[in-house]
Specification:
The complex is a heterotrimer of chains A (332), B (664) and C (145). By secondary structure, chain A is an alpha/beta fold. Chain A contains 13 helices and 9 strands. Chain B is of the alpha/beta class and 664 residues long. Chain B has 19 helices and 34 strands. Chain C has a single domain, classed as Rossmann fold. In chain C, the strands form 2 sheets. A 4-stranded parallel beta sheet of chain C has the order 4-3-5-6, with helices on both faces. In chain C, strands 1-2 form a two-stranded antiparallel ribbon. Chain C has 145 residues and is of the alpha/beta class. The longest helix of chain C is centred in the middle third of the chain and has 18 residues. The model of chain C has no long low-confidence stretch (mean pLDDT 90). Classes of the chains: A alpha/beta (332), B alpha/beta (664), C alpha/beta (145). Chains in contact: A-B, A-C, B-C. At the A-B interface, loops of A face α17, β33 and α19 of B.
Chain lengths: 332, 664, 145
């Protein structure tokens, strides 16, 4: 159950739209299914009142939408940001991707978002309604009686290992701010590092061979905001969308992960949207973990204007050969 | 589509001996874009170049590939050839089939196969080459010489004589360097001061030369023709413009216990001092580490005795910013520390000294006023042992000494031995050596005189141990020619310590982006053909910072460096490297990644208006490269996530084409 | 690639123009042999090497990729190789994380004076890659003839 209600957000959005602070609102509305909440742009109070939703399925990170929306307006865009979204927000500011003056950012607390795959596993298919009641979600399905599942049991992976409940950027905060959390988000990466090369290869071949190159991970990623992505640019020599074999996919994912290395805030959107449930965040988190261990703790987006590790150096940096040894406990 | 000509060079038998050149030119004939392919004995010869020129005209070639020696050797030659035939010089690519093929591979089939692949990669690249035009940048007509020893002095004088302003930065309070500490100079035995100090005066009086003594280079920016340098003029607490160099302060200063570095610590000086009588500039300097006034605020004697009122205890370091067209490194050398050579008892006995200390002991202006005495008791030594190669040619003891030969020790030891015997015929002089190396004009004759006329005992063999016993030094050594052990009761032992580059050279090299070898000597642009230039354009090398050398060699190299500087400063404009970065504004995100990795500050951001397909306009922040400043490293091209940044001459597509050709 | 039944690895070596390429030339000048498997691509600085080039080489059938640059502190462009060091540390660690044998990738600092080191490095690297056999994990099978 979220601490801030949909009504509070609707009231805030209507207020800011009516008093002329903003002329557009980035929010959520229902998709085809109740759990299928979609990002939406609202420009009228009527639309907001009738369509705006906020519940445990509002995972979408709006930061990236600000690039396009701020370009369209002479006024301001209202954006609701969960703590993790604020890191992406700062990172985009660092990279001069939108005009801060054109944004009114409202920070909202987040208790973690639900993962529909986990909900379905607990309550079954044919979901017709989901209601939050206290610490539970009550799920109605076509086939069975209503079933209550604990929110904590169906939290998305990225929320289980939430790195921060603290907002690092906002104009206004609804509710109370939290703290940066010392989470165990690298546990999965460590497990892989402890495997042998062969085991790791088998793991990733199994995961990445499912990739259908739909580009959803790239399209949703708040770090992937290039005017023209290298994968869409025939001049870049890496463009290649055909599904062929495992390496084609690996190449795509390695390059994508490398392009966002040091800039990825670990928001987890890539894994959330992957229709094939590939744990793409494990690639990005590997880079984050390596960066922390090689060059000192660095959280992209924690501070606007910070210098990303890949555009920085010290004369005493670890040598690549040693880095590989340090990067996998199997090698040590 | 390009029309490419391929020219395979035999390099006599250098290439043709291991590579079937006919097979290479035949194979490359069939590559995409190739319309002409041939081979010839020496492509770099006039006849070879004519073949290229004729083919360009006859076959209307738009690009050429020369399969030959390293591009570091003849790329420039073939670019000129192409330009002479009306082809853009950057439409030339070299496949290095000599250094990286025929010379390192043994048999014909493998050599030929690799040569073909290297040729294919070059053809693949040329297919994507585009004509390039270099930019131009102005030249600041002022030179900076770093180091004021004999090397720096000679370089500065020569540049100034040619009419260009020069600044000398010297970290010590006076110019003069090591040569000022020497007594006599081989092989003619003139006194060092007699030939050096007039040059120092010339420097001081030359209108084109400014001396920044007691100063260090703080920061170097810019590039050839346009360096921006910050110089830190350290506070000497004496107003240089007012101080007359009368020296009263240096006599009255109550702090008398400061080791005198000019005499290598063999005597003391005051806290305020002038290093030596002929110092240039002849002004006093307060040593802040010892001055009671600066440390406790109580004293002020120097200020009271200074009639000129030059003392200024509040003086601060000053930063001077200046632009230069060329920079000369002349940072010199030091003898290595003897701390790790316990076998010679350097730290146990005052009577074991280094050769530079011996110079001071025999110098009339030295601590003993030129009388050769033992530092321990001031007595005249009767038996002196000179040990050669202490820390030089020391391959096995790399942690103690140096692998290289220090080059000057054989000659100065012969000089020391000869002068000792000349002045004190009652002394016995032994020289222990591995080899005696005396190439050079009148050098071997000089050494022979020491042996034959002055009766110096030259013994081939190394000293194993020196042990102080009473007031004697027991020297244990081997005589390799007589095959026997020697025990000599010596009064004085002189160690010919290896020389090493000054410690300031390494950080300076980093600032200058000039490269160094593993011994911290500056590397030359080419060891034989460009020995006074560093690989970094606009940075030149003078004296021992490049390698061990004696005074005549140092001076000739110093003048050579000056000639190179003059050649550069005489130009009004420099033609730049056309292989610079460029950003595709349509793809640029304006994220600043490239700006952050650029070592030259060549990238700035501009807000630019773009017309959108729907006829609206949009203002976006995009990167813009200053081509005169960009040096073409390519760091930005990889930092750029969208691939908007590319490098001319080494474009992403070109490199990928090479990769593909090699992996085909 | 198999020659006379013996596996011959394809090795791409990216060499910076100022140090390593000159180091390779020096190996040539001194006739220091190293395997013909090694094919050099000249880049102005090691920092010009985009991870995409390395992946491309593997995709097109390279069995090992080595990147040579000036020693840290000696970069002709001051800092290029420092960026290279970070990029390659992270890239190689990632490749290994994906199960690519760590011996297939390498960065070596070779100065213009180190012809012997260049030849020795290439001998060792070729031997290590040859011992691993063909690179099946990172090759795009479609690119084979």
């Amino acid at each position: 159950m979220q601490k801030v209600t949909c009504d509070t957000l609707v009231a805030k959005a209507c207020e800011l739209l009516e008093n002329g602070t903003v002329d557009r609102v980035l929010g959520w509305k229902n998709g085809e299914f109740v759990y299928d909440v979609t990002p939406a742009l609202f420009t009228t109070v009527d639309d907001i009142k009738s369509e705006f939703v906020f519940n445990d399925f509002c995972g979408a990170n709006f930061s990236k939408y600000l690039i396009e929306e701020t370009r369209k307006t002479e006024s301001k865009v209202l954006v609701f940001l969960k703590p993790c979204d604020t890191y992406s927000f700062n990172q985009l500011l660092t990279e001069h991707r939108f005009d801060r003056e054109k944004v009114y950012a409202v920070g909202i607390p987040c208790e973690g978002m639900a993962d529909i795959t986990k909900v379905k596993a607990a309550a079954g298919d044919g979901i017709t309604a989901i209601k939050a009641e206290g610490e539970n979600l009550v799920i109605s399905t076509l086939y069975d009686d209503d079933k209550a599942v604990a929110c904590a049991d169906v939290l998305a992976e990225r929320c289980v290992v939430c790195k921060s409940k603290k907002h690092v950027a906002y104009d206004e905060l609804l509710g109370e701010d939290g703290d940066v959390i010392d989470s165990n988000r690298f546990d999965e990466v460590e497990k892989l590092e402890a495997m042998t090369e062969d085991e790791r290869f088998a793991f990733w071949q199994n995961e990445l061979s499912r990739c259908i190159r739909c580009n959803a991970c790239r399209d949703v990623c708040p770090a992937c905001t290039c005017e023209k992505c290298v994968f869409d640019n025939p001049e870049s020599s890496v463009v290649n969308k055909a599904i062929s074999d495992s390496f084609e996919e690996k190449m795509f994912h390695i390059i994508r992960a490398f392009h966002v290395a040091g800039r990825c805030t670990d928001c987890g959107e890539c894994s959330r949207v992957c229709p094939q449930n590939i744990p793409l965040h494990l690639l990005n988190r590997k880079f984050i973990k390596d960066i922390n261990s090689f060059y000192g703790e660095y959280q992209a987006g924690a501070e606007a204007g910070s210098r990303a590790p890949l555009v920085d150096y010290t004369t005493e940096d670890i040598e690549p050969t040693d880095a590989v040894l340090k990067g996998a406990s199997d090698n040590a | 589509m390009q029309r490419i000509g391929v020219f395979v060079c035999w390099c006599g038998s250098n290439i043709a001996g291991t590579v079937d050149v006919q097979a290479v030119s035949d194979a490359l004939q069939n590559e995409p874009g190739v319309v002409f392919s041939t081979n010839y004995q020496y492509m770099c010869s006039q006849a070879g170049q004519d073949i290229i020129k004729n083919a360009i005209a006859e076959h209307k070639l738009t690009g050429i590939v020369v399969c030959s020696c390293s591009p570091r050797m003849h790329e420039a030659t073939f670019r000129k050839t192409a330009a002479a035939a009306g082809l853009n010089p950057y439409m030339v690519e070299i496949a290095n089939i000599r250094e990286q093929c025929s010379w390192v591979h043994k048999d014909m089939p493998t050599g030929t196969e690799k040569a073909i692949i290297l040729g294919k990669a070059a053809v693949a690249k040329v297919n994507l080459n585009a004509p390039l035009k270099p930019g131009e940048s102005p030249v600041t007509k002022r030179a900076l010489v770093i180091g004021g020893g004999i090397a720096g002095i000679q370089t500065a004088l020569d540049i100034a004589e040619a009419g260009f302003p020069v600044d000398i930065v010297e970290k010590k309070p006076t110019i003069g360097g090591k040569m000022a500490q020497l007594d006599k100079t081989f092989p003619t035995l003139d006194c060092a001061a007699c030939i050096l100090t007039p040059k120092m005066v010339d420097v001081a009086q030359n209108e084109n030369i400014r001396i920044f003594s007691y100063s260090e280079v703080e920061e170097v920016g810019g590039f050839v023709g346009n360096f921006d340098v910050k110089i830190r003029k350290k506070a000497r607490f004496v107003n240089e413009d007012i101080c007359t160099g009368c020296g009263i302060c240096t006599e009255k200063c109550p702090q008398k216990k400061v080791p005198n570095e000019f005499n290598l610590g063999m005597d003391n000086r005051r806290a305020i001092y002038i290093p030596f009588a002929q110092a240039v500039p002849k002004v006093a300097t307060i040593d802040a580490d010892y001055c009671t006034m600066l440390k406790t605020g109580k004293c002020g004697v120097c200020s009271k005795v200074c009639t000129a009122g030059a003392i200024d205890y509040t003086q601060k370091d000053e930063i001077i910013e200046e632009k230069y067209g060329a920079i000369v490194a002349a940072t010199g050398f030091n003898p290595i520390s003897m701390d790790k050579f316990d076998e010679y008892a350097y730290n146990q006995s005052k009577d074991v000294i280094t050769s530079l200390e011996f110079e001071r002991l025999t110098n009339a202006a030295g601590p003993s006023a030129g009388k050769l005495v033992r530092p321990s008791d001031g007595k005249h030594p009767h038996t002196i042992v000179f040990v050669q190669c202490v820390g030089s040619r020391c391959a096995a003891c790399a942690e103690k000494g140096k692998e290289y030969c220090s080059k000057i020790c054989c000659m100065y030891t012969a000089k020391h031995a000869m002068l000792t015997r000349d002045k004190y015929p009652d002394t016995d002089v032994y020289v222990f050596y591995i080899d005696v190396r005396t190439p050079g004009k009148a050098f071997d004759e000089f050494y022979r005189r020491a042996v034959e006329e002055y009766g110096v005992h030259y013994i081939k063999g190394m000293v194993g141990k020196v042990s102080p016993e009473g007031d004697k030094l027991m020297v244990q050594a081997s005589d390799l020619l007589a095959n026997k052990q020697l025990h000599i009761e010596a009064d004085l032992v002189v160690l010919a310590a290896a020389i090493e580059p000054d410690k300031s050279a390494r950080p300076l090299a980093t600032q200058l982006t000039a490269s160094m070898d593993t011994n911290d000597f500056f590397t030359e642009a080419h060891p034989k053909l460009r020995p006074v230039e560093s690989p970094t354009a606009g940075v030149f090398l003078s004296g021992t910072c490049q390698g061990p050398k004696d005074i005549p060699e140092t001076v000739s190299q110093a003048s050579a460096a000056a000639a190179k500087v003059i050649g550069l400063l005489a130009k009004d404009k420099l033609t730049g490297n056309p292989c610079v970065a460029g950003s595709d504004e349509l793809m640029c995100n304006g994220c600043s990644s490239c700006e952050r990795v650029c070592p030259y500050g060549a990238i700035t951001y501009v807000d630019k208006e773009f017309r959108m397909p729907d006829r609206t306009t949009r203002v976006r922040r995009v990167a813009s490269v200053n081509e005169a400043v960009c040096q073409g490293c390519g760091a930005c091209t990889v930092a750029c996530p969208s691939g908007a940044m590319d490098l001319k001459g080494f474009a992403t597509k070109q490199i990928i084409a090479e990769v593909d050709a090699i992996c085909r | 690639m198999q020659i006379n039944g013996e596996f011959q690895p394809k090795i791409v070596a990216f060499c910076c123009n100022w140090c390593s390429y000159a180091g390779a030339d020096l190996a040539g000048n001194n006739r220091l042999a190293y395997p013909e498997n090694v094919k050099i691509i000249k880049v102005p600085c090691s920092c010009r090497v985009n991870p995409m080039f390395i992946l491309r080489a593997f995709q097109r059938g390279a069995d090992g990729v080595i990147l040579c640059g000036c020693h840290p502190g000696d970069c002709h462009y001051t800092s290029g190789n420092y960026y290279t060091r970070r990029r390659m540390a992270l890239l190689f660690s990632m490749l290994n994380y994906l199960g690519i044998e760590k011996e297939r990738t390498r960065v070596e600092w070779v100065s213009a004076a180190e012809g012997a080191k260049f030849a020795q490095t290439m001998n060792e690297f070729t031997e290590a890659v040859a011992a691993l056999g063909e690179n099946k994990r990172l090759e795009d099978l479609r690119c084979k003839k």
